[in-house]
Amino acid sequence: MQKTTNFNDNTFFLLKQYKIFHLVEYQISNDDPVRKLSKILEAMNFNKLMQVFSHKTKIHPVRMFAVILYAYSRGIYSTRDIEIACHENIKFRFLLQNSKIPDHSTISRFLTKIENLLPELFEQFFKIIFKLENISTDTIYIDGTKIEAYANKYTFVWRGSIEKYSLRLDEKIETLISDFNNDFNANYESFLEICAYLSNLNIKFVKGRGHKKSKEQKYFEKCMEYLEKYQRYSNHFINLRGRNSYSKTDIDATFMRMKDDYMKNGQLKPGYNLQIGVISEYICAYEIFPNPSDSKTLIPFLDKISNLNLNIKNIVADAGYESISNYEYLEKMGYNSYIKPIYFEKSKTRKFKNDLNRVENLVYDSKKNKLFRKDGLELDFLYSNKKGTIHYFFNPETKKKIKYNAKFRMLSDKSKENISSNYGKQLRLNRSIQVEGAFAVLKEDMKLRKLKVRGKPSVLREIGLFCIGYNFNRYISRSLRNCKGTTLHPLQAA
User: Fold this and answer.
1) Residue 110 in contact with residue 243, Cβ under 8 Å?
2) Is 34 within 8 Å of 28 (Cβ atoms)?
């Protein structure tokens, strides 16, 4: 007789549950962002990436790269969080396919190895999007912001302090040489000669109470102390690299004034000056600089952008980039300058227009090389500098010396004329929307307010991944809005 098995209600319910979960299949729609990301990556050339990982790896490098990009676009930046997402998120499993799930240390090593490759991969990524949307690259919007470094606040080294301490050390060394020659009836001229002489002596070193140090020991200890300080100051000067400050925990970081205090009190914190270039809402270039001033970053940044072969014609930037060297560079390279002059907003006021002594209101006669006020008063010429481009005049009425650069004023007026045109006004509006909007997303939505890595190579890698994630999110957003092609927001009617 066949034996029958009796199932109670609980056992039957569990078995039924198992069958339900076993039959359900997860599916990803064709228009899901993760599928669009895979299509962009399939159009990229990963030969250099494969050369870096020429040996067999448990996870395909392209799949690992895809997982990291998708993580950054979803706001997941920690390697441990990416590992968890690979375990729990079906979209990450889709990108991995049948590969083994990476742990956080594997992801971290991968990021370190692709530091030098990321700029080229970033360029490929946004150029594929430009091709998909048929975007014109005539105009680029440039701006900068300060990003706080992953360094302690009180690890600063100031050039002024090091120069002061170094000068005091030189005076102490001179005194030591003089005292040593007097005490030992010697004639040494070099501090290092004294150090070498004392090192070769068989000095009996003593310490503690009840032990009197010999003259030789005292001088030897002073020499070692001065040598240690000299080496320390020399290392500081090497690490400064022409800057006025740096952080001990991140040597590449410079102390800058941050605008993040709720009382609007600027604070000096270790950070980087991040510059980005935006074309049609997409970030096409990024770079970090140690100097807090934007005016000194424009030329090296545009040199980097020129290597991208984007055929840019118009450079749109705010007043922080105005300088004679920048204007001359744009003129030399054939760019149209849409840089807002520093005085542009004030120039609209009645007080500014009626001030005859303002440099911006003076009239320069290039043929006679003379400077006049609008009421016809001629200013007396004093002297010019060696380059012959900057002229100094004296106003006998107000007893005021005026520094006037004819070339700078000509280029500044030309840029003012450009931004005052209807097209220039539209470009100024789009600069505020596009590049400042990109910074708003990076810093507020994507939380790029303080870095989590140290050193310029790692910082550039981190920012590059943020920019790719930003571009991908922007591409998805524009696709949903059916917004393709070159973006130029129109002026709003008053």
Assistant:
1) no
2) yes
From the list 436, 145, 447, the residue with the least C-alpha distance to 271 is 145
pTM: 0.87
Cite the DSSP H helix spans in 97-214: 104-113, 118-133, 159-184, 191-199
Backbone φ/ψ region at 442: left (φ over 0), alpha (ψ -120 to 50), beta: alpha
Q: Are 391 and 406 in contact (CB under 8 A)?
A: yes
Give the residue with greater pLDDT, 245 vs 23: 245
CA distance 78 to 245: 30
Kind and range of the H or E run holding 457: helix 456-480
Question: In 3D, which of 493, 471, 482 has the Cα closest to residue 40?
Answer: 471
Q: What is the pLDDT of residues 101-113, one digit of tens each?
A: 999 999 999 999 9
Q: Which residues pair with 384 in a beta bridge?
A: 391
Q: Which residues pair with 392 in a beta bridge?
A: 383, 403
Tally the C-alpha atoms within 13 A of residue 46's C-alpha that lie toward its C-beta: 17
Query: Among 484, 368, 404, 407, which residue's Cα sits nearest to residue 129?
Result: 484
